[in-house]
Amino acid sequence: MNAPLTRPLRSWLFVPGDSERKQARALGSGADALILDLEDSVDPAQLPAARTRVAALLKATAAAAPGPRLWVRVNALASGQLAQDLAVTCREVLPAGVMLPKVSSPAEVLEVAAQLGTLESRLGVTPGRTRLLVLATETAQGVLNLPRYPEALRGAPSVRARLAGLTWGMEDLGAALGALARRDAGGGLTFTFQLARTGCLLAAAALEVPAIDGVYADFRDPPGLARELLEARRDGFSGKLAIHPDQVAPINAAFTPTEAECVHARRVIAAFAAAPGTGVASLDGQMIDRPHLIQAQRVLARAAQETA
């Protein structure tokens, strides 16, 4: 279960680190990744027990049959709890990856990557195997520092290779700002949160890593989730965080190329193959150029990865 990534992860389901019952249900949810949470969903008084529970689950599932990748959301570096989170949960078995919350600058990513490298060395694990998913927009400083990620990680190729993606969140950012609402009357994100979402998407693209869309908190609103999934797939996100098992199947479906999309992609590629030596081709009476070809190749590559 805790093997390195071999295909894109579409659904990332949060599970409280101290709830054995919810973890058991989540393991059968069909999620690509489970995020065993030591942060927001755990009462501080229960944190020691949650760490012990997560460590036991990682050990128990280390040799299990293929299933969801097990990730751990640690506490923020600034909290002073992160080192102990890693020391206890990773004492014997490392998770597939670590979600790092409330990041304010790429320097924090570099520091945590170094800590993971030390753990890997101690356990005899291949360097870089434990991936990092960065929650990059939960502080105002984090949003302002998104453009710094490509330059900051350019000189750290091992850290960049460890990076599984960037994701964004609005609840902690909203609290930091004192925002009275995150969405407008029509359900759309207000400008500040659109800015955070878009900044995350652009930074991930600049780093050439996946961008994972944030949670849709109202798990009793399937139509609302469906609308947000359409927007996320349209804009270029490759997966989405989930807070309830019922959200997993719609997320997986939304980020899996459909047969119609694959058929169209193959037709685009065939059109270019029929017009060698040129940067444009014609399909159904319309001109298509290299961006269409690149997108078609992406769709088929993603479809191939999903079935690998």
Task: Considering the chains and any ligands shown, give keywords for the structure.
308 residues, alpha/beta, TIM Barrel, 2 domains, 8-stranded parallel β-barrel, two-stranded antiparallel sheet
For the largest beta-sheet, the strand count, sense and barrel status come to: 8 strands, parallel, barrel
Q: CATH superfamily assignment of the largest domain?
A: Phosphoenolpyruvate-binding domains
Termini separation comes to 16 Å
Strand order within the widest beta sheet: 1-2-3-4-5-6-7-8
Number of helices: 13
Number of domains: 2
Unreliable segments (pLDDT under 50, ≥5 consecutive)? none
* CATH topology (fold) name of the largest domain: TIM Barrel
Helix-strand pattern, N to C? EHEHEHEHEHHHEHHEHEHHEEH
**Which CATH first-tier class of the largest domain would you pick?**
Alpha Beta
- The general outline is globular
Strand content: 5-15%
In the CATH hierarchy, the architecture of the largest domain is: Alpha-Beta Barrel
The overall average pLDDT, rounded, is 92
Structural class: alpha/beta
Work out the helicity level.
40-55%
Rg result: 20 Å
Q: What is the total tally of β strands? A: 10
Please explain how this structure is put together:
The protein has 308 residues and is α/β, with parallel strands linked by helices. The protein folds into 2 domains: 11-254, Phosphoenolpyruvate-binding domains (TIM Barrel, Alpha-Beta Barrel), CATH 3.20.20.60; 259-307, no CATH class. It has helices at 20-27, 47-61, 82-89, 106-123, 140-144, 149-154, 157-162, 171-177, 191-207, 222-235, 248-254, 259-273, 290-307, and strands spanning 11-16, 33-37, 69-73, 97-100, 131-135, 163-167, 211-213, 239-242, 280-283, 286-289. The strands form 2 sheets. Strands 1-2-3-4-5-6-7-8 form an 8-stranded parallel beta barrel, surrounded by 6 helices. Strands 9-10 form a two-stranded antiparallel ribbon. Helix 12 (259-273) packs across helix 13 (290-307). The protein starts with 10 loop residues before the first strand and ends with a helix.
